[in-house]
Write a structure and sequence with these properties.
The chain has about 220 residues and is an all-alpha fold. Helices cover about 85% and strands about 0% of the residues.
């Protein structure tokens, strides 16, 4: 009888721990979502709450997909001995994850669009990716003032494309890695256009230091 009581007590404790953990997780995601929604100037509370929930649900969905993929890949690495078979299995799991992420992303944008304007949806995307698009776009124009209009358009287009991928990344580190890939692509593009990126960056740093010196 004592053993049964102890077993039941352990189950209750585990259940309470799991519930508290879930509540804390929901609280963190809700705070993160509200920080984004607060930039949208929504006056209707019902819309505010609905959009917040859409974003929270998206974060949860992303977490579930990435966690499952990580577990499946770990399992494949541990249980598939043949190197080629293991690589093929991991590749298939990556393809499956990317497909699921794409479907989730499309559904997410559709859900946001039911409540928000296109400009507001853009703000949500920027909020989920730390505003890197605008920061990077502005930085490149500061670094290379001679950028031509078509070069600016290409930069912005690639940054927006990077943002679509970064929104579904598993961590802030991976989000920034997506932008890094596209910045590398843009740097290669500029090099072919005749720019010396290293020199442009050095000159930019000099201008920044001069401005700081002038302010002092």
């Amino acid at each position: 009888m004592k053993s049964l009581i102890l077993f039941v007590s352990v189950l209750i404790s585990l259940s309470a721990f799991s519930q508290n953990k879930e509540e804390e997780y929901n609280k963190v995601l809700t705070q993160r979502a509200k920080k984004i929604v607060n930039t949208l100037d929504l006056n209707d509370k019902s819309v505010y709450d609905a959009v917040t929930q859409v974003i929270v649900t998206q974060y949860k969905g992303l977490g579930e997909l990435h966690d499952k993929s990580d577990a499946d890949i770990k399992n494949a690495k541990q249980n598939i001995a043949d190197k080629t078979a293991k690589e093929n299995a991991i590749k298939a799991l990556d393809t499956e994850l990317n497909s699921n992420l794409y479907n989730l992303h499309c559904a997410y944008i559709g859900a946001l669009s039911a409540y928000l304007t296109n400009d507001q949806v853009e703000k949500v995307k920027d909020g989920m990716t730390y505003g890197v698009v605008q920061v990077t776009y502005t930085s490149y124009q500061d670094m290379i003032p001679s950028l031509k209009p078509e070069e600016k358009r290409q930069l912005y287009a690639w940054l927006v494309e990077a943002r679509e991928h970064a929104m579904s990344a598993a961590s802030s580190k991976e989000k920034h890695e997506w932008f890094g890939k596209y910045k590398g692509r843009f740097n290669n593009y500029l090099s072919k256009q005749g720019y010396d990126i290293q020199k442009e960056r050095e000159e930019w740093q000099k201008r920044i230091k001069e401005k700081e010196t002038t302010k002092k």
